[in-house]
From TrEMBL:
GO terms for cellular component: cytoplasm. It comes from Actinacidiphila alni. Belongs to the glycosyl hydrolase 32 family. Residues 12-283 form the Glycosyl hydrolase family 32 N-terminal domain. The keyword Hydrolase applies. The keyword Hydrolase applies. Keywords: Glycosidase, Hydrolase, Signal. GO terms for molecular function: sucrose alpha-glucosidase activity. GO terms for biological process: sucrose catabolic process. This is Levanase. Residues 303-435 form the Glycosyl hydrolase family 32 C-terminal domain. It comes from the Bacteria.
Amino acid sequence: TTYSEPYRGQFHFSSQSGWMNDPNGLVYANGEYHFFYQHNPHGLAWDTMHWGHATSPDLVHWTQKPIAMEPGVQPGTLFSGGGVVDTANSSGLKTGSLDPIVVYSNTDGVSVYYSNDNGRTFQAYDKGRKVVTVPSGVSSRDPKVTWDAARHRWVMVFWSDEGGNGVSIYTSTNLLDWTFASRYRADWLFECPDLFPLPLDGHTNQQRWVLTSASSQYVVGGFDGTTFTADGTGPQKMVNGDFYAAETFTNTPDGKTVQMGWQNGNQGSTWTGDASFPVDLGLVSTPDGPRITRTPVAGLSSLASQTQHWAGRTLTPNSNPFSGIKADIYDITAQFDVSHATAGSFGFDLHARSDGSADRTVVYDTAKQTLDGIPLKPRGGKVTMRLLVDRGQLEIYADGGLFSVADNVNFDSAADSQGIRLFSNGGNVKLDSADFTRLNTSWG
Ligand code: FRU
């Protein structure tokens, strides 16, 4: 496979072949980022869950590796879970010179699997014995482990329906023996939880903890090493659109909290599903409380092949600053001053054709104050949007990363379908600036 099929993401990871769903065991270990994923190598639909594997030096260029875990070879159900790097060999599982990668999986209890060859092969710890058990009749899955630096120990969360939907929290000092800490009950918490600290407004001494769930809902709160206490009430939504079962990486070299999720709708002749583009997570104070920000990792700029910049223009109906451009995969950032806008709406037609049609339109509605149908208030009279356009994916970021959309679009890559129309409807709007970056493929 050359990754050149129609709709195959060129800077989004997808399995070379077969089905993928959730990202699993995201770690930085022994000089590379590791992306494991729920994988069926035998077909294009969900079945016989394996853990697929890919590695990257920079979160942008991925190399497909052989399957890491296979049902029947490794005991257990091999459903979703997280991973850590045991740099201190606290588990005693280390046999060679590399840092062990320790991952967690299984349903209705938790099993440990570990690799001493940098994720190429895994062994089940103690024949797959469940190191955490749940009462019979209780469903549970998706263990995720994080380092709790304040307490010098590991913390695990997993979903279960014990007493209703929620997460169980366990702690450990050696990655193998786990002690029950508490249970956080919430109806919205279903599948693939993640619990991790983030500095508030960049201040490492003002750390808050974030608890997320598969559908990208989250709450911010405090974690005292035993109990998680949410600051406010209901959960917030992190991403709109086709985005599920995200995980954050552990052990990142720069200490950043990088997240990748699963986009379910992308399918071609040889594969199904792909990963969302990795983002750095942040936490900022807002009048409504702390909120997550998502920013595409800076490494994307390594794919830049051509850039173009516009500044201080007035957009009028039928003026298109992008008229000279034909592009397939690209990154656009545009800032509009809407304070004196007379346009009812403005935005971008993506993969536009000369007959006026386009594969996808991204619209800001000045009266409703919505971007792509989702509320987005101007800040100081400005609306700024960033669009990442790949062959099968569209991501929209705005409002300093407080707003994000992940969508699945089968873009037509034919030469006459590669136009970009920056439009305004029914009046004018000021374009403060726009930056276009044409991207190269990330596949080698
Ligand atoms: C989420 C999920 C997880 C489970 C996995 C199985 O998409 O249902 O809860 O572990 O997929 O593939």
